[in-house]
Amino acid sequence: MAGSGTDKTKNWVVAPGPIVLLVEPQLGENIGAAARAMANFGLARLRIVKPRDGWPNERARWMASGADRVIDQAEIFDSVEAAVADCTFVLAATARAHDQAKPVVSPEQAAREIAPHIAESANVALMFGRERWGLTVEEVGLADRIVTYPVNPAFASLNLAQAIAIMSYEWFKLSTGNALPFATPQKSPPAGKEQLLAFFANLEAELDKVEFFRPEDKRGTMLINLRNIFTRIEPSQQDIQTLHGVILALAQGRKGPARGGNLHGEEAEVLRALLAERNPDDSSGGATRGLSRLLRRNPTEAERNLWEGLVNDRRLAGQFKRQSPVGPHIAAFVSFPLRVVIELVPEQESEEARLARDTRRTWLEARNYRVVDMSAAYVERNLAGALDSLAGIVADLRVSGT
Question: What is the C-alpha to C-alpha distance for residues 166 and 131, in angstroms, rounded to an integer?
Fold first, then answer.
């Protein structure tokens, strides 16, 4: 159904409405186009007086483009008098003044006058004339109101389907309270002030690092202007999580886990294993800090996959940061707000590396961090399952308020 507004899975609007009466229409195609316009706006009762090309008419069905219900239920009459015999209120649509002492109304006014008659279950007819010359004086004389449209006086003639579409639209708009068929989807609740303030703090911290707020005496005004930009758009929770991810990616730059570093995956794993076996109490860390930066630019396959998953999964985006996995207390992936640390455990881990990881766990848990051990091999094999597990942990923490 892509590209189309016709959806047969949805219920047809079934509501009382006026009858559309076509007087001696000349072409089946025009009848079909009229039926389609009626269906667009919930009208189903079509009456036809002496169609020139006979009835039923396959050209009408073809032009109706699926409005078969209107075509199938159409009633055929031999005269206008017979077609309006059971109607208590008749309106004649015409672009010409017929010099008759009848109220002349616009389509919008006509819809308002029709409404009380429909509410009393009375039959109301909207009468439209022939394509070439419209309604006769006598036919207009049968009507209670004349309907004319606000159009260019020098080019006032509408084709049949256009005239019916305008009148049907005004009726449908009135009868449905101007309700639209769909609205902007609310996929994520509005962001709360706490989430907004956390985002602002993150944004301002990163901008401070690049000395954005210059000159210093303008800092306050610049901060307010920045906050107002995001406040005006009324962001959702998902919007803020996405923006967190954008800022994180910009702040990390080439330090992020994209492909293209100097080491391939196996080399990165070897380097991590060597660093993990290093004595945690060794504080001569200049060279080690340089190696940690190298690690961030050269992630293992498991680290790269997990980070891409954390950034792109709507349940987790913006929640975790990627740290340097070096030293006794710094883990590769951490959520400071949730106090959750993810430890990627390699498939083959030396005893020294395991002891270093245990030391780190003890230190983190003593400070109320929850440490989640996750097999690197499992992440490479089943990233979706790993993300589901993490999302469940995050959801539980949010529910518990920890």
Answer: 16
Task: Give the orientation angle of helix 351-365 with respect to helix 265-276, to 10 degrees.
Answer: 70
174's tokens: 């009135």
For residue 139 the two structure tokens come to 């036919």
User: In whole angstroms, what is the distance from residue 28 CA to residue 36 CA?
Assistant: 12
Looking from the CA of 9 toward its CB, the CA atoms found within 13 Å total 3
Contact 377/303 with Cβ under 8 angstroms?
Answer: no
SS3 label, residue 23: strand
Q: Is 254 exposed, middle or buried (0-12, 13-18, 19+ CB in 10 A)?
A: exposed
- Does residue 215 register a pLDDT over 70? yes
Summarize pLDDT for 323-364 with one digit per residue, the tens. 654 445 555 788 888 888 888 888 887 887 788 888 888 888
H or E element at residue 22:
strand 19-23
Domains, the chain, in order of start with CATH, read 19-175 (3.40.1280.10), 187-255 (1.10.8.590), 257-402 (3.40.960.10)
pTM: 0.52
| Residue pointed to by tokens 């075509």 | 71
- The CA distances from residue 196 to 235, 288, 317, in Å, are 9, 37, 15
Specify the residue for token string 């306050």: 220
91-150: per-residue pLDDT in tens?
Answer: 999 988 877 889 999 999 999 999 999 999 999 999 999 988 889 999 999 999 999 999
Could you give the CA distance from residue 310 to residue 318 in angstroms, rounded to a whole number? 8
Q: Residues 318-329: pLDDT tens digits?
A: 888 876 544 455
Among 45, 130, 125, 51, smallest CA distance to 95 is for 130
Token reading at 82: 């017979």
